[in-house]
Amino acid sequence: NNILELVFQDLDKYLNESTEGAILFSMGSVIQSSSFPPAKRQAIMDVFAELPVRVVMKWEDDTLLGKPDNVRLSKWLPQRDILAHPKIVAFMGHGGLLSTSEAVYCGIPMVLIPMFGDQPNNVAQLAASGVAVKLAYNEITKETVLKALRAVLYDSRYRESVKLLSERFRGRPMSPLDTAV
């Protein structure tokens, strides 16, 4: 318990000290970010280095070549807690239902890289709703990542759309448990 508490305190301090906000990057529990080819990883790192925000990144290896100073790595992250942090300004992920539901609930705009399963449909729906930008895995370059992140960070329509969707999601007449029952 004490170790977990220290991790939370350290992460909270890291996020709170970000003057421009922070991005959460996580490809979930099945897809490992560390399996991305070097050119794609470097393109993402180059963009992170160029942006004035901090990044918290789920990364499964002990090191990441080319990691900029504004990126904090962790093999495990309390994703829901991080998304709820007031300094989080964007989420990059794979578009899975749980991750996107958490981001919508927290009102966080997204850049999503769909890989398989339900992800392409989830991402298409979220992009059509104006709360996310789809980034095709095969099209990851520094330019495409930068364009996608700049859109969700600096075009207020994404933040406004996700806040509205979050309000609708939270304002359901019955709780999810009652709905399921």
Q: What report would you give on this structure?
A:
By secondary structure, the protein is of the alpha/beta class. The chain is 48% helix and 14% strand. The protein has helices spanning 2-16, 38-50, 79-83, 97-106, 119-128, 142-154, 156-170, 176-180; strands spanning 22-25, 54-58, 71-74, 88-93, 110-112, 132-134. A 6-stranded parallel beta sheet has the order 3-2-1-4-5-6, with helices on both faces. The chain is globular. The N and C termini lie far apart (34 Å). The mean pLDDT is 92.
Name the features.
alpha/beta; six-stranded parallel sheet; globular
Structure in a nutshell:
The chain contains 8 helices and 6 strands. With 181 residues, it is α/β, with parallel strands linked by helices.
Structural class: alpha/beta
> How can the largest sheet be summarized?
6 strands, parallel
Q: If you average the pLDDT, what whole number results?
A: 92
C-alpha geometry: globular
How many beta strands in the DSSP annotation? 6
String of helices and strands = HEHEEHEHEHEHHH
Number of discrete helical segments: 8
Note the topology.
Elements (H helix, E strand, L loop, with lengths): L1 H15 L5 E4 L12 H13 L3 E5 L12 E4 L4 H5 L4 E6 L3 H10 L3 E3 L6 H10 L3 E3 L7 H13 L1 H15 L5 H5 L1
Parallel strand pairs: 1-2, 1-4, 2-3, 4-5, 5-6
Helix pairs in contact: 2-6, 6-7
